[in-house]
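ok new one. same drill as before - structure tokens go in, u give me an amino acid for every spot. 438 of them this time. try not to just spam alanines like last time pls lmao
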């Protein structure tokens, strides 16, 4: 599989190139150039197929012209020593829990896969690389876990002062680890602005072999497509009709990766999401992508610090925009709808649902035909309910037992290094230089 920029059909690169140079110079985002028909692999998988084996098989099928099956299997095996949990709640409703990784968030899957793939590519090319990202939450904990033992890739993470959490001191670069946390005397926006300044300088990007671990990098986004195939392998014997996935919006990464699964021949009838600022419906109830009203050439460049994947979704449907209305179903849910959904999930199924999962369930209940007699809805739960105890306590009066992984992921981190000013680009460059990778 090759990859192409959303803004230049002639900018076609390999998987390795898309990982290492994830931000195209034309300002777009990399997306699959052609879509393989993976029907025979998808239909072959069943409830005995592990997530790692499924990911290895699909990776091999997708990029077999670049990597051997053995290498693809090795990437997946190294990345996925954990897997999602899919449970049937009733005849028409399933839940896919994506928070059973080391830090209790769906991001564990993408970051772990990206890190394993990067290490492999760098080893093959005799290179080293730096991941440059900002965080105010779980990304730091994910990075600390995913980069353990890696020899060729390190991470420089920016966060507002006092916001780092979920990392042990042995993961810090100065203690022999792979993560260099940098506290910024400012806001999350200040951290993003610093990263944008670095990526706007081509010489710096080339010099330090910079890339990112957020979903601007297709290597972080692509493995999320495996979620839906995994869920299908678990439910297909129990479903005879339509299959819908109900999921939170976020930065649209999970939605786009689900659409990639459909493009790769996964049996699916649609994706149900709550209405958001940029994804709404018109007077006829049909989906609208608000960004589409602005031509690509008039937009800002894709953001390496805080990406949105809507442009990738536009690219999927650009040949036939009417298809978008047949696969994406936004529902306008109220705060009461969300609260009622949380209560219903608990009273009916003993599911502790965070706000995002409750929003997705509320949206699915508003979709006509989603719960037909022989059809099914798969509710996508991205993060551990332990991470949203206040909302759950407010809705149902109690919370679930706290996951140890989440307790550790929320443990504050004390960096004990000088805090940099929000406009101190030179200091950030000196930190990149101090890693002595090049």
């Amino acid at each position: 599989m090759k990859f192409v920029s959303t803004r230049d059909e002639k900018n076609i690169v390999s998987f390795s190139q898309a990982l290492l140079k994830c931000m195209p110079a034309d300002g777009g985002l990399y997306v699959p150039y052609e879509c393989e028909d993976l029907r025979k692999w998808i239909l072959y998988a069943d409830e005995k197929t592990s997530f790692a084996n499924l990911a290895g098989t699909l990776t091999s099928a997708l990029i077999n012209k670049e990597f051997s099956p053995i290498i693809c299997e090795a990437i997946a095996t190294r990345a996925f020593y954990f897997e999602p949990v899919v449970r049937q709640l009733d005849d028409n409703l399933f839940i896919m829990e994506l928070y059973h990784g080391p830090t209790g968030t769906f991001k564990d899957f993408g970051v772990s896969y990206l890190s394993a793939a990067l290490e492999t590519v760098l080893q093959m090319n005799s290179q080293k690389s730096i991941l440059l990202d900002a965080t105010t939450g779980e990304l730091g904990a994910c990075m600390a876990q995913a980069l353990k033992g890696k020899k060729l890739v390190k991470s420089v993470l920016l966060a507002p002062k006092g916001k780092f959490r979920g990392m042990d001191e042995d993961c810090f670069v100065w203690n022999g680890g792979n993560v260099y946390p940098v506290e910024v005397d400012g806001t999350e926006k200040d951290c993003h602005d610093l990263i944008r300044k670095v990526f706007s300088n081509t010489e710096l990007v080339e010099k330090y072999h910079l890339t990112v671990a957020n979903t601007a990098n297709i290597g972080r986004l692509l493995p999320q497509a495996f979620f839906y195939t995994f869920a299908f392998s678990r439910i297909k014997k129990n479903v005879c009709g339509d299959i819908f996935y109900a999921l939170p919006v976020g930065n649209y990464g999970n939605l786009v990766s689900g659409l990639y699964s459909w493009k790769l021949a996964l049996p699916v009838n649609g994706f149900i999401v709550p209405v958001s600022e940029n994804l709404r419906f018109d007077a006829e109830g049909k989906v609208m992508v608000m960004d589409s009203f602005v031509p690509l050439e008039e937009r800002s460049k894709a953001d390496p610090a805080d990406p949105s994947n809507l442009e990738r979704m536009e690219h999927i449907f650009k040949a036939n925009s009417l298809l978008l209305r047949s696969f994406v179903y936004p529902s306008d849910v109220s705060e009461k709808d969300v609260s009622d959904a949380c209560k219903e999930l608990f009273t009916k199924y003993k599911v502790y649902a965070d706000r995002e999962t409750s929003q997705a369930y509320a949206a699915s209940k508003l979709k006509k035909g989603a719960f037909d007699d022989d059809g099914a809805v798969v509710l996508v739960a991205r993060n551990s309910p332990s991470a949203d105890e206040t909302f759950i306590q407010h809705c149902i009066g109690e919370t679930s037992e706290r996951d140890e992984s989440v307790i550790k992921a929320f443990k504050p981190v004390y960096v004990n290094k000088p805090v940099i000013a929000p406009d101190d680009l030179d200091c950030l460059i000196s930190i990149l230089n101090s890693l002595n990778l090049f």
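The longest strand covers residues 153-160. and btw Residues 105 and 383 are 4 Å apart (CA to CA).
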